Amino acid sequence: MNVKVKFLFGMLSWGLIAGCEMPDTHPLPDGKSTGLVPLPQILEPLEGEANGRGFRCEGALTLMWPEGWNMSAMTAWLEEAQLSWERTSEEREADWIWRVSEDDLGQEGYTLSVKRDRVTMSAGDAEAAFRAWTTLRQLLPETCEQGCASGFTLPAMHIEDQAYLRHRGLLLDCCRHFMEPEFVKEVIEVLALQKMNVLHWHLTEDQGWRLPVEAYPQLTQVGAYRRETNGEVTGGAYTREDIEDILAFASTRHVQVIPEIEMPGHCRAALAAYPWLGCTGDTLPVPTNWGVFKDVYCAGNDSTLAFMKAVLDEVCTMFPSDVIHIGGDEVPKVRWAACPKCQAKMRRLGLKDEAELQTAFINEMGAHVAKRGKRIIGWDEILEGGLPEGAVVQSWRGMEGAIEATHLGTDAVVSPTSHCYLDYPLRSTDLAEVYSFVPVPEAAKGHPGQIIGGECNMWTERAPQEAVMGKVLPRATGLAEVLWSGPKVTEAEGAYEGFLDRLDVLGLRWAFMDVRPGLEGVPVDLEVRPGRRGEIEVTVNAALRNVGGRVRFVSSSGAEGSAVNVGEPVTIEGTGTVQVDVVVRGRSTGVTESFPVAGHAAAHQPLELGYEPSQYYTGGGPQALADGRRGSEDFRDGAWQAVQAVDMVCTVDLGDPLDISALETQFYLYQDAWIFLPRAVTWSVSMDGQRFVDLPTQAPWGDAQKPDVRQTVVPLRIEDLGIEARYVRITLANAGACPSWHDAATEPSWLFVDELVVEATR
Questions:
Q1: Are the CB atoms for 734 and 687 separated by under 8 Å?
Q2: Dihedral sign of CA atoms 525, 529, 535, 538 in order
C-alpha cells in the first residue's frame, strides 16, 4: 500500500508547491562538499552525472526510509529549515531514499550517492542512517540552518564512510558550574553533527550534586548549592523531567548519555548532605574551591555502601546506557588509614593496603551494577589495587592506563591530559595538538583488550556555561575527526591543513546555527630578542591564519606606548604587558592577548641553574628566568619555571659590574594544586662570581605552609639598594611536603618562579 504522510510549512501562500524536478529557472543556494567534518573515507565527485550537476530541490521533498527507523531529528530539522516534506513507501516517488544495506558497510557505515534525480543512502541500521544524514546536512547550504524554503542544490557525488572507533565522546562537567538543560541539548546537537556518539555527563562532584535521587532528597536540596566567598549562593539540579527530555533528545541523535557518579572520592557535596557517609561524620559545607579533598566515602561503613547501591539503582533505572561511570580517580586514603571501620574491613577481607580497599569498594559496586545488566567504567586509578572485574578503564594520566587495560583483557577509553583536556588553555592544548592525537598506540594492539574510543574532557572549574562552547569548539571537532576518520585520514600528508580548510566552511554553518566556537589556538605568539642594555625587543607574530591586530606596550605605571601592527617590533624598557587586540579576517574578535614582559639588565644574560627544572614546567628552557618574559595568572602559560620537592638556586652574570637599584621576581601560589610559596628567599650579589654577599631579604609572607585559599601571583621586590655587582644570585627554599592540614598531606609541594628582574645602570 502506498502510504504518504505530508507536512507543509509556510508554503500555502504560494498557491503551488514546487517539487524537486522543476527546471533551473532561478538561482538557489548551492551545497558543497568542502565543509565535511569528519572527512568521509571515500568522497568522489560524479563527473558523469549531467556534467557534475547534482540534485536540485525547489522547496519540497519526498522521503523514503524503512519502517522502524526513527528519523525525527532529520524531519525536525527540515521543518526548521522551512522545507516541506512527505513520506512515501514507493521508491520511484522518493527524492531522498534510505535503504537497508545487505552488505557489511562496517561500523556505523553508510553510502551516500547524490545524483540529479535523487539522493540515495544505504545503511545497516537507524544509527548508521543518522550518520548518513549528518553528512547530507553538511552537504546542504549552510544558510539552510536558518531556512531555505525556496530550495537548494547539492553537488553530484558518491560517499562511502564508516567509523574508526565506536566510542567518540565529550565529558561535560555540570558540577563545578551548573549547565542549563537546554544548553546540554545544544551540546548534544553539536556533537551529533560531527558524528560524536557519547555524552559523558559528569553529575556528581565535590562542588555540586546535580542528580535527583528519590531516596535521598537532600543530595539536591543541600548538595546542589554552595555559598561562594562573596556570599552568593550558586548551583542547580536537574529534575527527572529534565533528564528524560535530554535522554529523549539524545536518543533521536544516536548519542549515548553515560552518567558519572563519582565514588569513592570527589564526594564532598554528598557528605554535606549526609555527613554519616564519611569516615569522620563531620558536618562539612559544599566546597567553593577546587582540588582534591581528603574526606571521601567511608569504604568500611555498610550504610555508606547501601547508600551507593540505592543511588546506582536509581541511576540504572533513569539512564538506558549500557555503562555507568563511577569515577574512582584522585581518592586520598588518609581518612581510611585512620578509620576503624575501614581498617576492620581490610582485616576481614585480607587486604594489604588502602588501594586494595578501593578495588574492593569498586568491585562491590560493579557487581551490583552488573545485576542490572550494565558495566562500570572508571578512571585509570581503578587499576591501582587490581582491575575491578568487568570494568572499562578510562585513561587520563597519559596512555599507560589504557595500555595496561588492553594487556589485562578489558576495554579502554582514552582521554589523556596531553591532548584531550579542553579546560586547558589554548597555550597548553590547541587544535593542532588535539588533531595530532594517536588514540591507539602500537603498545595497545594485539592484546586481549582493546581501545574502543576516546573522549575530550570539558571540566568547568573556570568555565561557566557561557564559556563552555568556546572551549569545546573547535578542539572537540578535531578529536571527532581523529576518532571517526582514523589515521588514514588524519595522518596523511597535508591532513591538518585540509582539515582547517574544511573547518572554515563548517564555521559558516556554526554561525547560522548561532554556535560560537573559540579560536583553534593562541592567535599570536611573542618573540623576545636582546636589545641594548636594560632593554628587550619584542615582536608579536600571527600564529594562526588570517590573524592581525594592533600591538601596544602598557607599562606597570599605566603609561601606554605607540601602537604597531602584528609582525612589527617594539623596544621595551621596564616591566609591563604587551597587548594585542586580535583581528581575524579583518574583523575584531573581542579577544585581547596580553604578555607580561620586562626589559631589564639581566635579560638574555648568561644563567647558571643549580637545579633541574620539571619537564612539565621548563618556562621555555634554561634561559627562562632571564628571557624578558614574565609569568601570568595562568601557571600553565609556558613562562613559569618550577620544581617539585627541591630548592632552587639561580645565578645571573650581568657581564659587567653595574649599579643595582632594585631586584624583583614573582612566585605562584595555588595550594589546592600543591603550589606553595618558598619557605625562604635569599638574594646575593658578587663581583667575581665566587664570593657572594647576602642581601637583607626575607619572605614577607611568613610561614609558607599556613593555609591560603588564593590562586594568584605573589611578587617580591627589594629596592633602594645602591650596590655594585656583576653577579646576582637567588636561593629559594622549597616549602617541603604538603602540611598535615592539606588534602594531599605528605605529598611533595611545587615551587614556581618567573623572571629575575635586575634594575641597574652603569
A1: no
A2: negative
CA angle 543, 545, 551 (to 5 degrees): 55
**Where residue 427 falls among pLDDT bands split at 50, 70, 90?**
confident
- pLDDT score of 322: 96
Q: Looking at the domain covering 5-161, what would its CATH class be? A: alpha beta
Q: Which residues contact residue 182 at a Cβ distance below 8 angstroms, ignoring those fewer than 6 apart?
A: none
Q: What phi and psi, each to the nearest 5 degrees, are found at residue 370?
A: -60, -30
Q: Which of 277, 218, 212, 270 is nearest to 239 (CA)?
A: 212
Task: Record the pTM.
Answer: 0.88
Retrieve residue 503's grid coordinates. Answer: 573547518
User: For residue 505, what pLDDT band results from cuts at 50, 70 and 90?
Assistant: very high
Sign of the dihedral defined by the CA atoms of residues 333, 338, 343, 344, in that order: negative
Mean pLDDT of the chain: 94
Superfamily holding 167-512: Glycosidases (3.20.20.80)
Q: Is the pLDDT of residue 11 over 50?
A: no
Tell whether the model's pLDDT for residue 4 goes beyond 80: no
Q: What is the pLDDT of residue 506?
A: 97
Instruction: Give the domain 524-599 fold.
Output: Immunoglobulin-like (2.60.40)
Return the ∠ at Cα 128 (arms to 194 and 83), rounded to 5°.
70
Domain boundaries in the chain?
5-161, 167-512, 524-599, 607-761
* Euclidean distance between CA atoms 483 and 355, whole angstroms: 33
- Characterize the bridge pairing of strands 42-45 and 648-670: unpaired
Lowest mean pLDDT among 102-106, 131-135, 385-389, 480-484: 385-389
Helix then strand then coil, % of the chain, to nearest 5: 25, 30, 45
